[in-house]
């Protein structure tokens, strides 16, 4: 049995990755401190409750499972919070990742798949982003992820750590079977908040800024379905197992949706009204983040099949109505 360590396996993307890893014949071992994740979401393999800054625990976990690879999802990921508490992001994301990378190298594990972000690119004047675009993050979240990319490069040079870096655009949707889904407390992401507003779990959705330099004045993002995203991770894992070497790929579809377009689509797809309030800009938000790269499709063979607004909102809505975690 091939074991793969999944840090953040109790979280949104990590739990979906565990499901697909198990379906693909791997044993996903969730490593999560449950600071934002849910034990209920760990359904597809063993669970090790551990903090990534606890090197002693990590060494024991590596010795126990002798994993073939790491899929490293665990991180704090809220742009707004990273602007008010940057230390949290540098400590948790960077120190945790460094400790994990050192433990990984010490255990002789050579394959590392890392969740990075399009927030590492920063403001680029509305151009579509490729892997070669300059990385100039404008928030501490993006900066922390950029730093981890640098650490991985250093550890490849010194220890031969092969890595695939995925720079995510906006991850949305949920497992179509609603076995796992997106459940943050507090929730900060656009689509789940729109669904909360639709069914009265909150009074209204606040639009963060209506004066951006975009056709309708709201920020534009590139949304990708979580199931498509985790498919790319399986391909990234195989890429490393096949010895194809380190690489970085954007994971986005190349289609941009404004905040207003997401709201309008959600109203149509759910056939419900979305109460909205127009608010101030959220510090740290870029005007537009859209992928301009086909590298994941061309080189990895990635074929996103569910990343339409219709599938993403419908799957999120099904989960929203039926699924939740209790602990
Ligand atoms: N957004 C918004 N209202 C909200 C939450 C998000 O207008 O209550 C906007 C946010 O400013 C950004 C987009 O929706 O332009 C996506 O934000 P999200 O937090 O989902 O993801 P991020 O782009 O920060 O990774």
Entry summary:
This protein is α/β, with parallel strands linked by helices and 327 residues long.
Your description of this structure?
It is a single chain. With 327 residues, the chain is of the alpha/beta class. Helix content is 39%, strand content 18%. The chain has ten helices and 14 strands. It has helices at 12-23, 55-65, 79-84, 86-106, 140-159, 190-198, 226-241, 259-270, 295-300, 309-322; strands spanning 2-7, 26-32, 47-49, 69-72, 111-117, 162-168, 170-172, 205-208, 220-221, 223-225, 247-251, 257-258, 276-279, 288-289. The strands form four sheets. Strands 3-2-1-4-5-6-11 form a seven-stranded parallel β-sheet, with helices on both faces. It has a three-stranded mixed β-sheet with strand order 12-9-14. It has a two-stranded parallel ribbon with strand order 7-10. α2 (55-65) packs across α4. The longest helix is centred in the N-terminal third of the chain and has 21 residues, at 86-106. The protein starts with a strand and ends in a 5-residue tail after the last helix. It binds uridine-5'-diphosphate. Uridine-5'-diphosphate is lined by residues 79, 170, 188-190, 193, 205-208, 219, 221, 259, 282, 285.
């Amino acid at each position: 049995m091939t074991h793969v360590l999944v840090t953040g396996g109790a979280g949104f993307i990590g739990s979906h990755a565990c499901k697909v890893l198990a379906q693909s014949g791997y044993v996903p071992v969730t490593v999560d401190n449950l600071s934002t994740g849910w034990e209920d979401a760990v359904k597809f393999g063993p669970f090790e409750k551990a903090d990534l800054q606890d090197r002693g625990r990590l060494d024991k976990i590596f010795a126990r499972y002798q994993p073939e690879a790491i899929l490293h999802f665990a991180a704090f990921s809220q742009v707004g919070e990273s602007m008010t508490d940057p230390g949290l992001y540098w400590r948790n994301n960077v120190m945790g990742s460094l400790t994990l990378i050192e433990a990984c190298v010490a255990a002789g594990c050579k394959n590392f798949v890392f969740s990075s972000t399009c927030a590492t690119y920063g403001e680029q004047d509305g151009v579509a982003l490729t892997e070669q675009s300059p990385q100039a993050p404008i928030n501490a979240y993006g900066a922390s992820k950029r730093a981890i990319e640098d650490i991985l490069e250093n550890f490849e040079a010194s220890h031969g750590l092969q890595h695939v870096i995925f720079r995510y655009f906006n991850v949305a949707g949920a497992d179509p079977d609603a076995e796992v889904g997106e459940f943050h407390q507090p929730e900060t992401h656009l689509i789940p908040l729109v669904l909360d507003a639709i069914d009265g779990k909150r009074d209204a959705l606040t639009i963060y800024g209506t004066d951006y330099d975009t056709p309708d004045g709201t920020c534009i993002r590139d949304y990708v379905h979580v199931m498509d995203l985790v498919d790319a991770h399986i391909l990234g894992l195989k890429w490393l197992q096949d010895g194809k070497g380190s690489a970085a790929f954007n994971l986005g579809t190349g289609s941009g949706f404004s905040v207003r377009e997401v709201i309008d689509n959600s109203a149509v797809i759910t056939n419900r009204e979305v109460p909205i309030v127009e608010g101030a800009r959220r510090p740290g938000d870029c005007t537009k983040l859209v992928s301009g790269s086909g590298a994941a499709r061309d080189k990895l063979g990635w074929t996103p099949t569910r990343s339409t607004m219709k599938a993403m909102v419908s799957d999120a809505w099904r989960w929203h109505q039926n699924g939740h975690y209790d602990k």
